[in-house]
Write a structure and sequence with these properties.
alpha/beta
Amino acid sequence: MNNTKLTTKEYWDDGYKNFKFSPMPDNYPTVKEIYSIFKKTDSKNVLEIGCFPGRLLYHFGKLGYELNGIDHTEYLQTMINWLKSNNFKIGEFRSDDIFNISYDKKYDVVFSSGFIEHFSNFDEVIEIHKKLVAKDGYLFLTAPNFSGLIQNKLHKIFDGDNLDKHYIPSMDVEKWKKIVDDGSFEIIKSEYIGGFDFWVGNKKRTIFERIIIKIIRLFLPLRFLPNSKSYSPEILLIAKKIV
C-alpha cells in the first residue's frame, strides 16, 4: 500500500493539546443525518476511524452504541475520559496508525469524518473502512468539500495552508460511490450537504483577511440553500453492507 499522508502526527497533536471537549450541535447537518439513519440500540457498536476529538462519536453514544475508535494521537485518553463522563458504553480505543489495524473484529457502523481527504491514496483508505463493516452494518463517511468551485476559491484565498493539507481529488462523492458500490454494499445516501457554509483552519492572518472572513461569517450559515457541489461545505456517503 502506498501510504501517502498530507499531515503528520505532530501536526494533529499540536492542535489537540488544549482542546476543549464538546459535542457537535444537534442542528449540525452531519448530526442530523446520524439521528435520521441510526436508531437507539443497546446491542450495537460503532468504530470511528480518526476518532479524536469525538464530537460526532458522542451522538452515537447518546443512541446507546458501544463506542470504539482509532487515532494516532497521544491525547486519546483525554477523549475517552470525556466520553466515559457521559456514561456511554466504551469498547476499545487504540492510539495507532490505521494502516496497522486488524480486520478480525467487525462493526455495526464504521464511521469517519474529515479523515480520508488527508490521504492521496484515499481509495485504499476507504477500502480499509469497508473491510471493517459487519454484515448488515453501515459505512458512514463524511468530509469537507473544498473541491467545489466556490468553496475552492474561498479556501485558496483565505485558507491556503489548510487547503494544502487536503487531497482535493478525494473530495468527490462520485469517486466515493465507485469505490463503495462493488456489489457488497448498497448506497443509501450520497450527496453534498449543508446548504452553504464556510470555515477556515487556524493560522495567523492579516487584519484584512480577518475582516473579510468575519463579514462572510456574518451571513452564514445559509443552510436553507439547496445543496450543491459548488458551495456546500460537506460530502456524505452512507452505505449498507449486504454481502
